[in-house]
Write a structure and sequence with these properties.
This protein has helices at residues 9-13, 45-59, and strands at 17-22, 25-31, 71-81, 89-99, 103-112, 116-128. The protein has 133 residues and is α+β, with helices and mostly antiparallel strands. It has one domain (9-128): Hotdog Thioesterase (Thiol Ester Dehydrase, Chain A). Strands 1-2-4-5-6-3 form a 6-stranded antiparallel sheet, with helices on one face. The longest helix is centred in the middle third of the chain and has 15 residues, at 45-59. 33% of the residues are buried. It comes from Caballeronia sordidicola (Burkholderia sordidicola). Belongs to the thioesterase PaaI family.
């Protein structure tokens, strides 16, 4: 997979990469490094929530190359933590569940080393500006 341009300074700070993006789907991958751990030595829940928020949000704003960018923002995000984040990398996958004219709904999954599902998410997002349907 080739990386997409990441235009999000906070995700860049986390060393996250935008590795897949198409209509209704987005995927981010982040190496698990010491700076991402909590005091118990496992992946910080806030880092997982950030990746899930990005994957779910970006899943609804895909625009093919050469078309105007689409933007949106999070109205709500619920994350359920299922396991600890111990491994080499974490991947967050976002999937669109339903779209409206101004709001879209997405679900997400966070996987460690593409083997262990460590969190799931559901979110509501609002388009800001141009919306592609």
């Amino acid at each position: 997979m080739s990386d997409f341009v990441l235009d999000n300074p906070f995700l860049e700070y986390l060393d996250a990469r935008h590795v897949a993006w198409e209509h209704g789907y987005a995927e981010f991958r982040m190496p698990i490094q010491a700076k991402h751990l909590n005091r118990r030595g496992v992946l910080q829940g806030g880092a997982v929530a950030t990746l899930l928020d990005a994957a779910c949000g970006y899943a609804g704003v895909y625009a093919p190359e050469g078309e105007p960018a689409i933007h949106g923002f999070t109205l709500s995000l619920t994350v359920n933590y299922l396991d600890t984040g111990l491994g080499e990398s974490v991947t967050a996958k976002g999937f669109i569940e339903r779209r409206g004219r101004s709001i879209y709904f997405a679900r997400g999954e966070a996987w460690v080393d593409d083997k262990i599902l460590i969190a799931s998410a559901q979110g509501t997002f609002k388009y800001s500006g141009l919306k592609k349907g």
